[in-house]
Specification:
single chain; about 170 residues; alpha+beta; seven-stranded mixed beta sheet; three-stranded antiparallel beta sheet; 6 helices
């Protein structure tokens, strides 16, 4: 009888320790706490692998947009995907960069799907009003390299390729 009570108490204590030790929200906040005082442009600037994208933002004036707007999602292609991009035509670059910024914040869940307000989304509407297909850990066929880099006015995802330009 005493052995059963001791065994039960040990199991309860172990359960409480396990439940108290796992707090994914706290873990997530600890990982991202350093970035909550920075804006999206500052976060983008900190990533040397997307320097061509930074130059596009500066050339088009979208660097200021990322500093001032609230609740944005940025999908920044790596430099390797942008080697052929011409930086001389500012008007074309403005149209191009609008395909990589979305109003509202979209995060990937543990399953790799993009979520918004608790539900999985099939597509993400960019600021140019075009909807880009979003799948498991990908955006229009581009794979996520870095996901859910959170800051005070949105989230940054780094992708491995460009997004197909969607015409009207």
């Amino acid at each position: 009888m005493k052995l059963n009570r001791l065994y039960r108490n040990m199991m309860l204590a172990a359960a409480f320790v396990c439940l108290g030790a796992c707090d994914p929200w706290r873990d997530d906040l600890e990982l991202n706490k350093a970035d909550l005082d920075k804006d999206l442009y500052e976060i983008v600037m900190e990533n040397p692998g997307i320097s061509i994208f930074v130059r596009v933002l500066q050339a088009t004036g979208y660097d200021r947009f990322l500093k001032e707007e609230q609740a944005l999602t940025v999908f920044a292609p790596q430099d390797a995907a942008l080697q052929q991009l011409s930086l001389s035509d500012t008007a074309a670059l403005k149209l191009w960069v609008q395909n990589y910024i979305a109003y509202l914040s979209y995060y990937t869940g543990a399953d790799g799907n993009f979520n918004r307000s608790g539900g999985v989304v099939d597509g993400i509407e960019m600021i140019n009003r075009k909807t880009i297909p979003a799948g498991v850990a990908s955006l229009s066929g581009s794979k996520l390299i870095t996901a859910n880099r959170t800051c005070k006015n949105g989230v940054l995802h780094i992708i491995d390729n460009t997004v197909a330009d969607r015409k009207n």
